[in-house]
Amino acid sequence: MNVAILGFGVVGSGVAEVITKNSDSILKNSDVSLSLKKILDIRDFADSPFASLMTKNFEDIVNDDDIDIVVETMGGVNPAFDFAMRCLNKGKHVVSSNKELVATKGFELLEAARKNNVNFLFEASVGGGIPIIRPISRCLAGNRISEIAGILNGTSNFILTKMIVEGMSFADALALAQQLGYAEKDPTADVEGLDAMRKICILASLAFGSHVYPEGVYCEGISKITLSDVAYADSADCVIKLLARTRKLEDDKILVMVTPCLISKDSMLAGVNDVFNACLVRGDATGDVLMYGKGAGKLATASAVVGDVIDCAANDEKRKFFGWEAAKENCLASHLEADTALYIRAEKTDKALIDSTFGEVKYLSYDGCDEKEIAFVTGTAKEADLMGKLETAGIKVLSLIRVADY
Ligand code: HSE
Known about the structure:
The protein has 406 residues and is of the alpha/beta class. The protein has helices at 10-21, 23-30, 59-62, 80-89, 99-115, 133-139, 154-166, 170-179, 188-191, 194-208, 227-235, 298-314, 351-358, 383-393; strands at residues 2-6, 35-40, 54-55, 69-72, 93-96, 120-121, 145-151, 218-219, 238-248, 254-264, 276-283, 287-294, 339-347, 362-364, 373-377, 381-382, 397-403. The strands form two sheets. Strands 7, 8, 9, 10, 11, 12, 13, 14, 15, 16 and 17 form an eleven-stranded mixed β-sheet that branches. A six-stranded parallel β-sheet has the order 3-2-1-4-5-6, sandwiched between helices.
């Protein structure tokens, strides 16, 4: 089957490489023969081995009836959405690695795929090379999924790992992540949690069956985490990880949030380091399942894209049952209603005030910690109540991180 690629950046060029280099093993493994026919990019690639396939005109692709499958690796919503829609409406399968596109326009694209009896697949949009979307929608389909918690951004995990293991500053670690090609063009999306938020919205939509849009999802990044927070966490046998979490509550509302969390060093997620991602899925039949691997990078992400391309080719005549319904109104629960414990680093204040405010807390310290500060972990309570107590007591918070117990 003939394939076109929209966007010849890191992922798009990786897809071209994998389809070409592994054509024999793809045929052997899947009985599918893939041929790369055109590549769209506005830039020139005269020295590329794929130079003869390049076009700057999308019309060359959408109007080419010989192209069966279109891979969208452009990133961003526009013009990716318009291009993907036009390809679906022309009866072409579309495979995307674009989490922003799927998180914001996934339902519309799935509907267009359904109407045109083609596939819209996006395994690479969450967790890079890790199989996550297909395992949740297929292998775990016999479960009621109650909760998903993931380390879903490789760049922020790489930065936190460098801070924790090497005591590197946030700025130096970010520069290194950019140099290694892990970060988005604008790394704000990585370090402020937006990238992870889009990914957890996709997983929440898939697991709970209706579109969960990023708007209204509570999101904090890692840019305010200090080496002092890292050291206090270590003193409590914890590490700090950026967790993207979703949970179905008893009233059917869905809690979705992205925040740094203290997790025990014994947690399955604590050992997920560097650019690696992991996704923990809690099913009523299977219990906890952890999927782990490279969450970013050229060939790892291309691996997931090519898996989808093969799936499209193998299901050319029959659309796969896959996706979710339209969003439900007011489906999101507030993070303030959820129970949590909090790690708090504050300007030094009387322990008596802290004890009378929170009851029993665990005080933290490490060699060389700042004597003008105090750090402690509260017991578990509704977040709104803990925040209210902090404000009433007038405690001057320098850092506040939720404690999670996966
Ligand atoms: N910038 C993303 C990350 C790439 O660091 O995880 C993969 O989505």
